[in-house]
From TrEMBL:
Protein name: Putative membrane protein
Transmembrane segments annotated in the record for this chain: 32-55, 62-82, 88-110
Pfam families named in the record: Phage_holin_4_2
Domain of life assignment: Bacteria
Length: 116
């Protein structure tokens, strides 16, 4: 159940950012849900491979290259999903940063008190 709620919160974050950023577009809420699912699958399958392949440059840049890897993952998702558009890698980078920030805010609301 928590997985479905997390995916819906991620889709909500995608919709909010598509309204806020002019370089990112999402056609509908259904497309946003598909974007959330595809991004989680790409982060699970493709991102570790990219991290291993680019490990030397990631070490040299003290981990800042991971931001570029996140932007590439978003561009890959935009390539595969027809209703999701990202105009450039810079918009993908901004979208990636804001998406992770917004997801952390939304997911912190989901956490329950452990004292109960």
């Amino acid at each position: 159940m928590k997985l479905v709620i997390r995916l819906l919160l991620n889709a909500l974050a995608v919709v909010i950012l598509s309204y806020a950023l002019p370089g990112v577009g999402v056609d509908s809420m259904t497309t946003a849900i598909i974007v959330a699912v595809v991004l989680s699958i790409l982060n699970f399958l493709v991102k570790p491979i990219l991290i291993i392949l680019t490990l030397p440059i990631t070490i040299v840049t003290l981990g800042l290259f991971l931001l570029i890897i996140n932007a590439i993952i978003i561009l890959i998702a935009a390539h595969f999903i027809s209703g999701f558009q990202v105009s450039s890698i810079w918009w993908a980078l901004i979208f990636s940063l804001l998406l992770s920030f917004l997801q952390s805010i939304l997911h912190s609301m989901l956490k329950e008190d452990k004292s109960k």
